[in-house]
Sequence to fold (176 residues):
Amino acid sequence: MDLQIRRATLDDAATVSRLATRTFTEGFGHLYADGDLQSFLRDSYAVEKQRVILQHPEYAIWLLERDGVAVGHAAAGPCGLPHPQAAKTDGELKRLYVLGSEQNSGAGGRLLQTALDWLERDGPRTLWISVWSENPGAQRFYARRGFEFAGEYEFVVGNARDREFMFRRVPVVSIS
Ligand SMILES: CC(C)(COP(=O)(O)OP(=O)(O)OC[C@H]1O[C@@H](n2cnc3c(N)ncnc32)[C@H](O)[C@@H]1OP(=O)(O)O)[C@@H](O)C(=O)NCCC(=O)NCCS
Fold:
């Protein structure tokens, strides 16, 4: 069976919205009261919001597809994290989600690498990722690619507040 990654286009806004809703709910939905979850999903993953992101030249979304059906997605853009050292020119992995049935086969790693390559398309730069403090699997996954803990903040899901970690990767400067 064929697993492929492609850049999402404006026509994919509804697919991205549906998949983002499904993967967030599958991974983290049990943590929140229904009202908080629904409010977060509405704010973050509305079709219209995906359309805005997909049209923005500084943002990109990718779909992981199995036989043409979307089973994972990643999103990237300028860093918007509340860290005192985060610069406007830094990049951020905004989302990375693969359906549970497709996890642990390397697909998430490929999706992440696609987003990181795009973020560094004009050369190495500082990159950021936000990850839930109680998601050690994802933290290990990012650490293996050179990301290190850089601070924490509160992630808002409706009326709920999560402890969220900021991970950062600074380009290696060679001294000659
Ligand atoms: C994180 C995620 C994208 C990785 O995708 P994947 O296809 O499973 O990744 P790969 O097969 O390339 O690599 C497996 C690694 O992912 C991590 N991982 C595996 N299952 C995971 C899970 N359910 N949740 C979080 N991380 C997981 C582990 O670090 C694993 O490495 P290990 O060998 O050190 O345990 C995927 O597990 C996922 O979508 N998880 C749920 C949502 C999530 O946590 N997203 C990250 C938000 S910051």
